[in-house]
Amino acid sequence: MDGVDFRRLWDELAPIGRAEAGGYLRFSWSDADLACRDWFRAQAAARDLRLETDRNGNLFAWWDPDAEAGEPNPAFGAADTSPRTGEAAPAARPDDDRRAVLTGSHFDSVPHGGAYDGPLGIVSAFLAVDRLRAEGAEPKRPIVIGAFTEEEGGRFGVPCLGSRLMAGAIDPDRARALTDTGGTTLAQAMREAGADPDALGPDPERLANLGAFVELHIEQGRNLGDAPVGVASAIWPHGRWRLTFTGAADHAGTTRLPDRRDPMLTFAFAVLAARKEARLADGLATIGRVAVEPNATNAIAAKVTAWLDSRAADAATLEAILSGFESKVRDRAERDGTGFAIAPESETPIVEFDTGLRDRIATLLGEGAASDRVPGGARERAPVLPTGAGHDAGVLAAHVPTAMLFVRNPTGVSHAPGESASDEDCAAGVDALAAVLRDLAC
Ligand code: GLV
Ligand code: MN
Ligand code: MN
Ligand code: MN
C-alpha cells in the first residue's frame, strides 16, 4: 500500500468532528460520534461485512468465512441481534481455530485531541481487509473490525468505558450514572442518540469467542526512532483521581487575607506537589482539568474540583507518587483551613501483552512487509516498546491474547492537535496489520 491509497480513505473520515479552534471534538454519543458510526456502517456495508452493535454500543464489522459459506459462526447471530436487555444468550464456543481475530480501535477524542489517536486503528483495519481481499486471502477464522465507545473518557471521565463494560470491569449502574460536564448522564446521552442504556453490561460470550485482538495505534511519544512500525510490550499502570478542595466563598475586596479559606490556594499547591512527587519517584503526574465554583473574578472560590492523572513504569512507583501527594496536600489543606478529598475514578494495573503474540509479530514484521520501509534496510525484529498511554487493548488483554502495533509519530505530540504521522508510515502500518492478520487468520 502507498501513502496515496491510505490518504484516500483517511480523508473521508478526517472532516468529522474537526474543531475550528484546532484538533477534534469527537465525544461519545455526540453528533460527531454518530457521524463516525455512520461512516463505520457505510464502510462495513461497502465491503459486505456483517455489522453488529453490541450491548455496550461497541461496533463490529465481520468478515466471516463460515457465514459466507452459509454456516454462520454459532457464537454469533445475524446482524444486530445482540441482546438489548438482560444477560447475553448462552452460545456455543467455537473451536479455538475458529475464534475471531479482532482488530480496530476507537473514534472518540479528548477535547481538541489529535486526528490519529483511535481512528488510525479503524481506518487501517478496513484497508488491511481490502489488502487481504485484493490478494485473494482466504481467512480460516473471522476477521472482525471493532470500534470501541468512549475510550478516552473524554466525555464521561472513565477511560475505555466500552471495553470495560464488555469485560465486566465496571458496574453498569455506575456507568449509566456517569455525567459529562453539562450534567448529562451516560444513560441520557445514549437514549438521546437512540441507544439503549439498559442493555449495558458484561459480554463474556463475545469475549470468549475472540481468539486474538490486535490494536493498531499512533505511537504517542516519539519513541520509534527510525522504524515506522513497532510492537507494544506493556502499558504502564495508571489511573485518574478526583480531587475536591472546599473552602468558603466571600468578597474579594473586603475579606482580609488571614480570614480566608481559599481552596484555590490548596489546589495550586496540589498542582506543584503532583509534579514534585512524580519527579522524585521517576513517574508522571498531571492535573489537566479543573472546575471552580462559583468561578467569579471578584469572589473567593467555594470549591475546586480537579482531576489527577498519574502513571508509572510499575505499581510501587505509582503508589509512592500517590501517597506522597496525598499526605502533602492534606497537610497543606490543614494549614489553609480548607477541605481536601481524593477519590479514584479509574485505576488500571500494569498490562503485559501476550509475550508469544508479541514476539511472533515482532519477528514477522522484522522480516516482512514493514521492514523494507525502514531506512538502512530490514531489521531482524520490529522494535518492542512499552507505553504510558491507556488503550482498550489493555482491558481486553486480561481476557484475550492481545497485541498492539504502533505507527511512528514524528512530533511525539498526542492528545493535542499537533499529533501527526506521515501517509507513508500509515501505509506501512496497514501493511504490517495485513501481515499480522494474514498470519493469524489465513
Ligand atoms: C488514553 O488515551 C489515555 O492514555 O489517557
Ligand atoms: Mn488517547
Ligand atoms: Mn487511543
Ligand atoms: Mn488511549
Automatic annotation (TrEMBL):
The cofactor note reads:
Binds 2 Zn(2+) ions per subunit.
Which segments carry the region annotation Disordered? 71-95
The highest taxon in the source lineage is Bacteria
* Family annotation (Pfam families): Peptidase_M20 (PF01546)
Record-level Gene Ontology MF annotations: hydrolase activity, acting on carbon-nitrogen (but not peptide) bonds, in linear amidines; metal ion binding
UniProt entry keywords in alphabetical sequence: Hydrolase, Metal-binding, Zinc
As cofactor, the record names:
Zn(2+)
Q: Which residues bind Zn(2+) 2?
A: 117, 152, 415
Q: Give the binding site residues for allantoate.
A: 240, 298, 311
Q: Where does Zn(2+) 1 bind?
A: 106, 117, 217
Assigned protein family: Belongs to the peptidase M20 family.
Instruction: State the name under which the record lists this protein.
Output: N-carbamoyl-L-amino-acid hydrolase
Q: Which organism is it from?
A: Glycomyces harbinensis
Q: What is the lineage of its organism?
A: Bacteria, Bacillati, Actinomycetota, Actinomycetes, Glycomycetales
